[in-house]
């Protein structure tokens, strides 16, 4: 009965896939948080209770929800990530995420496989991806999981038990997964982002530039020139993919990095502000408070307490 409730939204012929995948993945998530596995691009997330919304950065990746649920908000769009669905993120995106369904005996459990867009590009000439004419350009989307996707994922997870086979067979299974994604429901979206010269690819280049130079003053005309777009076209297509403007995107990158500096490197507020590009510590503190819901020091103390409790 328990499995029936967990996977009631999944077709019967796929339930065995999900049950085995869940049982195997649970071994790599003994407690709450994100856990690495023997395959570097594969991580597992577990939460035993619901959470408040948290600002975070999603990277290009494929994810499957196995138990519980998350709500992911990008701009004005809210996505419910739950069993029976897969999440495809095609660019680095700042989102608001929270665990919306979880309890100790039925934790929220998800797996994520990061991928390199360059590998997608290399595969494109061999793939007949769906046409992109009516596809949203958003950099994140949910779709119904299929057996074609679950099969290579399950075989990759099985390989974790035989690490000696991973270096040879792991890349082949990742390639198969990318092929299935490109030929599946979200294939046009992924192909549009990866195709050299496309508007999606130009926005990917703009995002990469911002990630590498987030601490520098942003001049939109220079960024547009970097990616061979007009300033108006850059604004329009950047917002279509990320739901924010380039300036807002840069600000979120700065604040995410500052939070990391405060937590991991134990910087003081003024140092963290300066290192991410703020000239005024007071302006930094105001924007940090608006973004994360608390001033820097109070936010960091809360995060450290939560980490110790977990």
TrEMBL record:
Residues 204-302 form the HTH araC/xylS-type domain. Signal peptide: none annotated. GO terms for molecular function: DNA-binding transcription factor activity; sequence-specific DNA binding. The keyword Transcription applies. The keyword DNA-binding applies. Keywords: DNA-binding, Transcription, Transcription regulation. InterPro entries: Homeodomain-like_sf (IPR009057), HTH_AraC (IPR018060), HTH_AraC-typ_CS (IPR018062), Tscrpt_reg_HTH_AraC_N (IPR009594). It comes from the Bacteria. It holds the Pfam family AraC_N. PANTHER family: ARAC-FAMILY TRANSCRIPTIONAL REGULATOR, TRANSCRIPTIONAL REGULATORY PROTEIN. This is Helix-turn-helix domain-containing protein. It comes from Dyella marensis. The lineage of its organism: Bacteria, Pseudomonadati, Pseudomonadota, Gammaproteobacteria, Lysobacterales.
């Amino acid at each position: 009965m328990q499995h029936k409730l967990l996977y009631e939204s999944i077709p019967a012929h796929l339930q065995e896939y999900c049950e085995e995948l869940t049982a195997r993945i649970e071994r790599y998530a003994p407690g709450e948080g994100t856990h690495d596995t023997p395959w570097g691009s594969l991580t597992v997330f577990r939460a035993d209770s619901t959470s408040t919304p948290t600002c975070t950065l999603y990277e290009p990746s494929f994810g499957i929800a196995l138990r519980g649920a998350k709500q992911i908000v990008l701009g004005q769009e809210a996505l419910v990530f739950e069993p029976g669905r897969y999440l495809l993120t095609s660019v680095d995106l700042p989102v608001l995420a929270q665990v919306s369904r979880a309890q100790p005996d039925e934790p929220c459990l998800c797996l994520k496989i990061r991928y390199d867009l360059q590998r997608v590009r290399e595969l494109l000439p061999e793939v007949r991806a769906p046409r992109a004419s009516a596809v949203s350009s958003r950099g994140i989307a949910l779709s119904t999981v299929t057996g074609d996707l679950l099969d290579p994922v399950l075989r990759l997870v099985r390989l974790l038990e035989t690490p000696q086979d991973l270096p040879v067979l792991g890349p082949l299974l990742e390639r198969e997964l990318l092929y299935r994604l490109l030929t599946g429901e979200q294939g046009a979206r992924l192909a549009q982002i990866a195709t050299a010269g496309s508007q999606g690819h130009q926005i990917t280049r703009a995002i990469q530039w911002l990630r590498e130079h987030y601490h520098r003053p942003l001049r939109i005309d220079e960024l547009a020139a970097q990616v061979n777009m007009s300033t108006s076209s850059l604004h329009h297509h950047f917002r279509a993919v990320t739901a924010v403007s380039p300036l807002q995107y840069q600000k979120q990158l700065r604040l995410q990095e500052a939070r990391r500096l405060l937590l991991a490197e134990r910087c003081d507020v003024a140092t963290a502000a300066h290192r991410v590009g703020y000239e005024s510590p007071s302006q930094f503190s105001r924007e940090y408070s608006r973004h994360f819901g608390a001033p820097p020091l109070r936010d960091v103390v809360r995060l450290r307490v939560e980490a110790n409790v977990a």
